[in-house]
Design brief:
Blueprint lengths: L4 E4 L9 H14 L6 H6 L5 H11 L7 H18 L7 H10 L4 E4 L4 H8 L9 E3 L12 H10 L6 E5 L2 H10 L2 E4 L12 E3 L8 H7 L2
Parallel strand pairs: 1-2, 1-4, 2-3, 4-5, 5-6
Length: 216
């Protein structure tokens, strides 16, 4: 098999945005009368916003806020924080740059909405990604395979010849369901081993040649 493309998750994989998400969740949900802990935050790592809102609403006193307003407030605070600056995950930019130099297409496939993706990408060199699939641009979010299948279709490549890079069980499940080889780099939540999956401690040792070898 020949490596045709690399499909990247964003939050926790490309950038270290999970701590911002946790800070905003705990602050806002506590303000609204919920009890919400860092463990609760970890349980939603990689989740689609719509699914997360449903969970948040079960913990908030009835009548405190409408789901649409909660989503808007939560998202707005995280976007504002990310516009100020982002921290890249170790080895991410180096691998992206090397893939670009090697002529291997890359897609960004995120559960985050386009506005948040734009906030993150404003801090990065332009044209790192050939395709971007945002969470508000698909019908079914991760763990459904649709986001990764959509990216592969837009790149005109076979998902089986793609590598997905993820940091969450939800995202890894989506990549596997799409038929891709998954490199899982856990940050906060353990990701189990599975067929066509490599669980790695960091992106730092990875190179385009190493990724090609995974599919041979």
């Amino acid at each position: 098999m020949t490596l045709q493309a690399v499909l990247w998750d964003m939050d926790g994989t490309l950038v270290d945005s999970e701590p911002e998400w946790a800070r905003v969740q705990i602050g806002l949900l506590t303000e609204l009368g919920a009890i919400w802990t860092i463990e609760d935050c970890m349980s939603l790592v990689g989740s689609d916003l719509g699914d997360a809102v449903k969970v948040w609403m079960t913990r908030i006193p009835a009548g405190a806020i409408e789901p649409e307003e909660l989503a808007e407030r939560m998202y707005g605070e995280v976007v504002r924080a990310l516009k100020e600056g982002v921290a890249l995950r170790p080895g991410a930019l180096e691998l992206l740059t090397a893939l670009r130099s090697a002529g291997i297409p890359c897609a960004l496939v995120s559960a985050s909405y386009r506005v948040m993706i734009d906030a993150v990408l404003s801090h990065l060199p332009p044209d790192l990604f050939d395709v971007i699939v945002a969470g508000d641009e698909v019908r079914n979010g991760k763990p459904h395979p649709e986001p990764y299948l959509t990216a592969a279709a837009e790149l005109r490549v076979d998902p089986a010849n793609c590598i997905v890079i993820e940091d969450s069980p939800t995202g890894a499940q989506a990549g596997t369901a799409a038929g891709a080889f998954v490199i899982a780099v856990p940050q906060l939540v353990t990701i189990p081993a599975a067929p066509r999956r490599l669980v790695a401690e960091s992106l730092e040792p990875l190179t385009p040649d190493a990724l090609r070898d995974l599919l041979r």
